[in-house]
Predict the 3D structure of the following.
Amino acid sequence: MNAKIIGTGWELPAYEADNHYLSTIMDTSDEWITERTGIRKRYLAREETTTSLAAGAAKKALASSGLRAEQIDLLIVATITSDTETPSTACRIQAELGAVHAVAFDVNAACAGFLYALHVADAFIKSGIYKNALLIGAETLSKLLDWTDRSTCVLFGDGAGAAVLTAAEQGGVIAQSVGSDGSRWEALSCMGRVVHNPVCPEQAAPGFLQMNGQEVFKFAIKTVPLCIEEVLRKAELPAEEVTYFLLHQANKRIIQSVAKRLKQPEDRFPMNIDQCANTSAASLPILLAQMNEQGRLHPGDRLVLSGFGAGLTWGACVMEW
Ligand code: UT7
């Protein structure tokens, strides 16, 4: 049995902040952001939270799958911006949906989080332990950003995407390849709470997201093509037979570079980075759900999904739609 996606959904905050708006509050320009990243605008949460965005996307994914919440056995939220340190966002979504039979937990793998969640769900479904899974990538990255640091804050946005998977005899996930390199964690990180107790009263404020942009860029353009080539080998699928390559939406130039290294035309690398910016773990499921809603995915299509991010983490998956 393979894990097959049978429903998708996405949710974005109501507030749209375009590059022109950012240029009024910091020393940046629409020209710089568009040329260096491909981003034109991002959605920023005001009323919304990671939980509310996740719930919105999950409800749409469930509705489009035809399953009821009680039929979900496994509920995973990929996020680095949970609203609560504990419980997990997944447990709060379980309560909101009434997914009473699900085991619910979060995974923290930054922008590769949705791929990691897919990896876990596929293993559980293949082994026969669970049949139906709900995977959500949800973030309010804007709350981790230093809004005086133009080198990071212009890059990210908030949002959520979700997918319902079920055990299927045909199609679904064919091959996966995921990896981590913790020795390079400092390239992209955000410090959390520090030790604070009666024997250690010093307390520092939680940090903001900090990134060595060029190091992450180089890592991405080297690792992502290798990871995709590996997963295509495992699936015994030539790159030419892939319908779409859905890549984590971090930077248009990274996606173009990966397309070039794989020697595949750019039009098979769909993008929504101009609209949504980098929504971390939410980026892949939002793109997938939007393409599904637009009727761009058809039974038998071969999709490659690939993500990379803090950790460092990366992953790729081949699936038949
Ligand atoms: O989800 C995974 C996480 N992140 C990524 O994938 C990000 C990977 N990295 C990147 O996408 C790129 O490295 C960035 C978009 C972050 C930066 O692009 P870059 O071409 O590597 O620019 P840079 O860091 O070399 O900066 C070039 C110049 C600098 O000015 P000087 O020193 O040349 O005078 C920066 O100060 O651009 C300046 N700069 C800006 N200017 C206007 C940096 N940020 C901005 C800004 N607006 N927002």
The chain has a mean pLDDT of 97. The chain has ten helices and 13 strands. The pocket of oxa(dethia)-CoA is lined by residues 28, 32-33, 36-37, 111, 150-151, 154, 188, 211, 213-214, 216-217, 220, 250-251, 278, 309 (CB under 6 Å).
